[in-house]
Amino acid sequence: MFKPSRILIPTDMSDHADKAVRQGFEIAKLFGSEVFVLHVVHDHVQQCTVDYCIDSKLADDLQKQVVEGAREGIKKQVEKLVGEEAAKATLDVKVGAPYDQILKEADEKAVDLIVISSLGTTGIGKYLIGSVARHVLLGAKCSVLLTR
C-alpha cells in the first residue's frame, strides 16, 4: 500500500487550489506525513519597461514585498482551510516558472506525493487540465494526485 511520508502541495491560492490543500492535509493526517506548501511567483519585478527604468534597489524591495505578500497569502489560506494542522506544515514561496519550481522543490524535499489542482487561476475550461499541472505530471519523479 502506498503510504506517503512527504507531501508537496503547490498552491496558486485559487478556489481550485483550496481543494488540493484540503485533500493534501487529509492524506497527511491519515499517514502522519510531513507537508510542504509551495506558492510560485511567476515573474520577477521588472526593473525596466520600454522607456523607463527604476532603481535596482527599489526593484529588489518590490520583489521582497511580493514574496512576503505571497507568504502571508498562503499562510492565511492554509490556516483557514486546515486550522491547527497548518502549524505543522512548511510554507515556502519561490520565484520562477511554476512547474519548474514545483518539480525542483519536489526533488529537493524528496517528496513522494504531489497534490495539485488540475486547474488554477488561469484555467481555460472546466474539462481541460491546466498547463502547470500537465507539466508537473509529465516531469514528476513521484506520484501526483490531481484534484478538481
Essential attributes:
single chain; 148 residues; alpha/beta; Rossmann fold; five-stranded parallel beta sheet; 4 helices; 5 strands; 43% helix; globular
Notes on the protein architecture:
Helices cover 43% and strands 20% of the residues. The chain has 148 residues and is α/β, with parallel strands linked by helices. The chain has one domain (6-147): HUPs (Rossmann fold, 3-Layer(aba) Sandwich), CATH 3.40.50.620. A 5-stranded parallel sheet has the order 3-2-1-4-5, with helices on both faces. The longest helix is centred in the middle third of the chain and has 27 residues, at 56-82.
Q: Care to count the β-strands? A: 5
Named CATH architecture: 3-Layer(aba) Sandwich
Q: Spans with pLDDT under 50 lasting ≥5 residues?
A: 123-127
CATH superfamily: HUPs
Average residue-wise pLDDT: 88
Q: Helicity range of the residues?
A: 40-55%
Strand content: 15-25%
SSE diagram, text form:
Elements: E1 6-10, H1 15-31, E2 34-41, H2 56-82, E3 90-95, H3 98-108, E4 113-117, H4 131-139, E5 143-147
Parallel strand pairs: 1-2, 1-4, 2-3, 4-5
Helix pairs in contact: 1-2, 3-4
Summarize the structure.
With 148 residues, the protein is of the alpha/beta class.
